[in-house]
Design a protein that fits this description.
With about 250 residues, the protein is of the alpha/beta class. The chain is built from 9 helices and 10 strands. A hairpin with a 2-residue loop joins strand 9 and strand 10. Its EC number is 7.4.2.1. Keywords: Amino-acid transport, ATP-binding, Cell membrane, Membrane, Nucleotide-binding, Transport.
């Protein structure tokens, strides 16, 4: 693995009386794919969203490429350009074409020339398998195609790390693999990725490390082979017995 790229140290987060992140220590190295799994309500998505400050933290520190997360303003916008994010819902601009959705960020946030942004966007749309959909509006695409456009849009900013917050959970079953295939390709290309997912096949095949969360805490982390065949905690064993037997 490369040097540390995303580092969370002793991170705490409350929603009112609920302690959703408890003393989280996690390091994601450059080029590493870390998959976070666990039951609903365990804090996985909240952890993911703190890394580009979509959620603030109460205490602790988060650094991306050696820089601590800024509070707000231009520095935060700059950081968000370095941290690509793909959500459950695709969050595409409904009234803009697929090509416009992918070029908007680089043009507005980075000052990239329109012609350059369009060339790069077309390359990325080809890469995720929707190059022939560039002129369409998002509503004319399937869910799987929309999510692949959302991935291309995040990649258009040339991020240092990609965050995926349950990117396949809103998709019909037959569309899940087309999105996972793109993510596997990114992993193979060396993209640093933090992925919150229920897709255990992806965790097994693409992750360098699996992090298991429960009750706002990291209970266990290991390489996929070790985690899926010999988890050390009772909680992880119980979780896996429920999801892997069906």
């Amino acid at each position: 693995m490369g040097e540390p790229l995303v580092v969370l140290r002793d991170v705490d987060k409350h929603f009112g009386p609920l302690h959703v992140l408890q003393h989280i220590d996690l390091t994601v190295h450059r080029g590493e794919v870390v998959v976070i799994i666990g039951p609903s309500g365990s804090g996985k998505s909240t952890l993911c969203r703190t890394i580009n400050r979509l959620e603030t933290i109460d205490s602790g520190t988060i650094t991306v490429d050696g820089k601590e997360l800024p509070e707000e303003g231009r520095e935060l916008a700059r950081l968000r350009a370095d941290v690509g994010m793909v959500f459950q819902s695709f969050n595409l601009f409904a009234h803009r074409t697929v090509l416009d959705n992918v070029t908007l960020g680089p043009i507005k946030a980075k000052g990239v020339k329109s012609s350059v942004a369009k060339t790069h966007a077309r390359e990325l749309l080809d890469r995720v398998g929707v190059g022939d959909q560039a002129a369409k509006l998002p509503a004319q695409l399937s869910g799987g195609q929309q999510q692949r456009v959302a991935i291309a849009r995040a990649l258009a900013m040339d991020p240092k790390v990609m965050l995926f917050d349950e990117p396949t959970s809103a998709l019909d079953p037959e569309m899940i693999n087309e999105v996972l295939d793109v993510m596997v390709g990114l992993a193979r290309d060396g993209m640093t990725m933090l992925v919150v997912t229920h897709e255990m096949g992806f965790a097994r095949s693409a992750a360098h490390r699996v992090v298991f969360m429960d009750g706002g805490q990291i209970v266990e982390e290991a390489d996929p082979e070790t985690f899926f065949t010999a988890p050390t905690s009772n909680r992880a064993r119980d979780f896996l017995s429920k999801i892997l037997t069906h």
